[in-house]
């Protein structure tokens, strides 16, 4: 794609090049309007010998509030392990999201503007992490990371290289965020970065200013023990089923404590599979949903050569939303805790933990249980802090609890993919947390009077 002449590339875009290909009965049309193109995209080299490299898309702030050299950059990492951040880009928090319609027996996949995009006032960098994921390239299967240290090492190299692309990127504050299994990646990257920074000359450091995790898996041994109680008190299983599920949870915990990692990973999947079978829900990612999230739309959209070309992704890569190669490489990592990394981060930078309220995999209860156990001088104060009612545009959006460096947000009417379900509220959350406004301000104890009367509880 580097060799495509510019005018030719432009032509493709101006014509809103439409690809039509036939699937069994109906055809799909995908188009990529020029205004939806990333500001920058392509590859960051991890190993020039093996050819391993990380794919990224970057969207500059639409209406920055500060000079660009001061404007924050938010990094987004998808979970999995092995799922592409193009999911975040085109289904959750990017400026345009894939939308599906059926007209005259033709499936249309179009990009629709997202009013809750996270790049309204910040730059947003989506990274296909680790190598082997999405459009990223693993030089050899052996090079795919098998632990969080190696994940973080590669991410640090990639982000350093990205920052080096423009002089104006150099000192912009960086906020590392992500979802689900990124509950491992985000702490690992933050921890590695702060430790590494301490040994580097100022000009080689990364200006990490905070980390944020949505519906994360961070401390699996504790988190796997919460499903039965949570489902029981949500009215989804009865007492007998609760006991059955608890037995399976105990097995997962026992295997984790024994360091029998691969067995422990399977045991957790048995817990989730059993819960899924008992409840008959369409998805554990959101107990309200009658159909699973339609993330496969992103896979369909990105399978087109024209779209890959527009994104400067390698055309020969057959895009998968989630990679089995990477999932398998990190199989033994799944049940390993990174809570100690969050404990280090909360002492040295700011930490946001948020969960969609309706997630049964890595939801509110699952997060609160390990947060309570954090070894941090501020944890007592945090636990005593008010849980404030949080409103956006005069409507109830959820709850915010904060003390010093730690902020916890419960997002109402959202499942595992918070930005998909509550785009505008998730945008308000990330902006106010970064800028420390409203309930996210330091020293904020109670809700300001101007908000009272707008909350619809009771
Ligand atoms: C880069 O790739 C080469 C060839 O696969 C390998 O021998 C080398 O160890 C890799 N370097 C790093 C730093 O991973
Ligand atoms: C791990 O689990 C397997 C299967 O239950 C068992 O055969 C093996 O002995 C266990 N290993 C350890 C180290 O506990
Ligand atoms: C859930 O049900 C399916 C279909 O009956 C079955 O194949 C699967 O093994 C069950 N999963 C668990 C963990 O029991
Ligand atoms: C919060 O983070 C700052 C660094 O940004 C640190 O100096 C401070 O000690 C931390 N506070 C607590 C209570 O850990």
UniProtKB/TrEMBL annotation:
<comment type="similarity">
    <text>Belongs to the peptidase S10 family.</text>
</comment>
<dbReference type="Pfam" id="PF00450">
    <property type="entry name" value="Peptidase_S10"/>
</dbReference>
<keyword id="KW-0378">Hydrolase</keyword>
<keyword id="KW-0732">Signal</keyword>
<dbReference type="GO" id="GO:0006508">
    <property type="term" value="P:proteolysis"/>
</dbReference>
<feature type="signal peptide">
    <location>
        <begin position="1"/>
        <end position="25"/>
    </location>
</feature>
<dbReference type="GO" id="GO:0004185">
    <property type="term" value="F:serine-type carboxypeptidase activity"/>
</dbReference>
<protein>
    <submittedName>
        <fullName>Serine carboxypeptidase-like 50</fullName>
    </submittedName>
</protein>
<keyword id="KW-0121">Carboxypeptidase</keyword>
<dbReference type="InterPro" id="IPR001563">
    <property type="entry name" value="Peptidase_S10"/>
</dbReference>
<dbReference type="InterPro" id="IPR033124">
    <property type="entry name" value="Ser_caboxypep_his_AS"/>
</dbReference>
<keyword id="KW-0325">Glycoprotein</keyword>
<keyword id="KW-0645">Protease</keyword>
<dbReference type="InterPro" id="IPR029058">
    <property type="entry name" value="AB_hydrolase_fold"/>
</dbReference>
């Amino acid at each position: 794609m580097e060799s495509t002449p510019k005018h030719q590339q432009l032509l493709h875009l101006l014509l809103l090049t439409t690809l039509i290909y036939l699937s069994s009965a109906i055809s799909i049309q995908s188009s990529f309007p020029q205004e939806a193109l990333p500001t920058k995209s392509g590859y960051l080299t991890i190993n020039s010998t093996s050819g391993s490299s990380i794919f990224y898309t970057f969207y500059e702030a639409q209406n920055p509030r500060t000079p660009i050299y001061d404007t924050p950059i938010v990094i987004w990492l998808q979970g999995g392990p092995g799922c592409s951040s193009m999911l975040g880009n085109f289904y959750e928090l990017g400026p345009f999201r894939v939308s599906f319609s059926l007209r005259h027996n033709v499936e249309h996949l179009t990009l629709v503007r997202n009013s809750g995009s996270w790049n309204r006032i910040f730059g947003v960098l989506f990274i296909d992490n680790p190598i082997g994921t999405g459009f990223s390239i693993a030089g050899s299967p052996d090079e795919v990371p098998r632990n969080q240290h190696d994940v973080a090492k590669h991410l640090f190299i990639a982000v350093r290289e990205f920052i080096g692309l423009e002089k104006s990127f150099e000192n912009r504050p960086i906020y590392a965020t992500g979802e689900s299994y990124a509950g491992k990646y985000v702490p690992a990257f933050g921890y590695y970065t702060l430790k590494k920074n301490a040994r580097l000359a100022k000009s080689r450091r990364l200006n990490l200013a905070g980390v944020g995790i949505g519906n994360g898996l961070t401390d699996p041994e504790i988190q796997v023990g919460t499903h039965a109680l949570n489902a029981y008190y949500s009215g989804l299983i009865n007492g007998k089923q609760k006991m059955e599920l608890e037995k399976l949870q105990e097995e997962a915990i026992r295997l984790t404590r024994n360091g029998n990692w691969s067995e422990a990973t399977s045991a957790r999947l048995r817990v989730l599979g059993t819960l899924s079978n008992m409840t008959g829900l369409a998805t554990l990612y959101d107990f309200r949903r009658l159909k699973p999230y339609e993330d496969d739309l992103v896979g369909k959209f990105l399978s087109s050569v024209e779209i890959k070309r527009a994104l400067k992704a390698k055309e020969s890569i057959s895009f998968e939303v989630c990679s089995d190669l990477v999932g398998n490489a990190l199989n033994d990592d799944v049940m390993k805790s990174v809570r100690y990394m969050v404990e280090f981060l909360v002492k040295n930078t700011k930490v946001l933990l948020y969960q969609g309220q309706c997630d049964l995999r890595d939801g509110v209860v699952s997060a609160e249980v390990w947060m309570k156990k954090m070894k941090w001088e501020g944890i007592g104060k945090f636990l005593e802090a008010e849980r404030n009612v949080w409103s956006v545009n005069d409507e109830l959006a959820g709850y915010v609890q904060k003390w010093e460096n730690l902020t916890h947000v419960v997002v109402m009417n959202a499942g595992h993919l918070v930005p998909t379900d509550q785009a505008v509220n998730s945008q308000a959350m990330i902006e106010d947390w970064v800028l420390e406004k409203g309930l996210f301000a330091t020293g904020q104890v109670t809700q300001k009077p101007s908000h009272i009367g707008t909350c619809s509880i009771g």
